[in-house]
Each structure stands twice: as C-alpha cells, then as structure tokens.
Amino acid sequence: MWLYVTSGDVGTPAFDRHRRRAYELARRAGYHYADEPIPHLLRDDDELTQAWEHGIHDQQVERREAQAAVEREGIKKLIAAKDWPALKLPFPEQILETLRGRKSVHVEGHGLYFEEDYIYCVNPYGIELLVSHVQDLTPDDIEHFLADMALGEEWGPVPH
Fold it and tell me: How far apart are the C-alpha atoms of 37 and 41, rounded to whole Å?
C-alpha cells in the first residue's frame, strides 16, 4: 500500500480494491494461523495488524461455538437417557416428593416452591411464574423443567 500512497493513488478505486483485498487476506491468514505470531510483513501496518487480530478473533469465536454445540449434543443425549446424576441434577421424583412435602427446591438458579396448592418458579432474576397445581404436576413435567435447566434455558421473562 505504501507505493499507492506515495504515488498519489489514495482514494482511487484501484487503491480501495487493493486495500480491501490486503485486509481480507490478512484476516484470513490470522484465522488460519491463529496459533502463530503475526508475520513481519503485517506487523508494520496498523490496518493489517487489526485484520490479523480480527481473523484470530473469528477463529476463536468459531471454536467456542463448535465446542458449545458438541457439549449441547452430549447434554441432549444424557437428557434422552434420563441420566440426571451425570447432569448433576436431582431425580424428578425427588423434586416432586420435596414439593409435595411443601418444601422448596433450587435447581440451576431457579427455585420451585409450594404455596396454597400451587407450584411456583422463581427464575434467577427474581421473577415468579405459576407452574402448576400441585396435584397436576407429574414427573414428566419435572423432567421437562430439568431438561431446560441442563440446557441452560431460562424460565420466565428475562430482563435483558
């Protein structure tokens, strides 16, 4: 780019095209070689250094998303197998028994509690919602709740 700047070609379509191409190539290089130090050729130009870092960031985001997808699939398999201990969650029957005994249960930041023949849930933001009449609540309902908790779902409104 230095040649274009010294020859007065800044702002021309050709300069802009080469500049975009240089940025894209530096970004792709950062993506593909994120574990390597930045090449000397790119180190001296702020825009190309930024492109390299942008590529590294893109790769890191992609890796995190792929890892989260793999973990989510593993969680779904454990939910399908109803392997609550592997998910570090109580059995649905235990929760149901506790609630019918008029005691509260806390799972993944959510509280289930009994009040006047009804089961309520309080999410981590302190927002309450009615879940069910205590007599209508089944282990399947609790399994649905536990599945959502294992997957990191929020129950009720989320204030953000």
Answer: 11
Which pTM does this prediction carry?
0.68
Which residues span the domain enclosing 63? 2-80
Q: Is residue 156 situated within a structural domain?
A: no
CB atoms inside a 10 Å sphere around CB 36: 11
Q: Assess whether 46 and 96 both reside in one domain.
A: no
Whether 79 and 148 have beta carbons less than 8 Å apart is answered as no
Q: Token pair of 130, please?
A: 């009615």
Q: Nearest CA to 99 among 120, 89, 121, 114? A: 114
Residue 158 lies in a domain: no
Nearest to 109 by CA among 81, 149, 59, 140: 149
**Rg of the Cα trace of the chain?**
27
> Which residues, 6+ apart, have CB-to-CB distance to 131 below 8 Å?
112, 118, 119, 120, 121, 137, 141, 145
Question: Could you read off the pLDDT of 17-76 as tens digits, one per residue?
Answer: 888 999 999 999 999 999 999 999 889 889 999 999 999 999 999 999 999 999 999 999
Q: Are residues 62 and 17 in the same domain?
A: yes
**Domain end position, chosen among 49, 80, 111:** 80
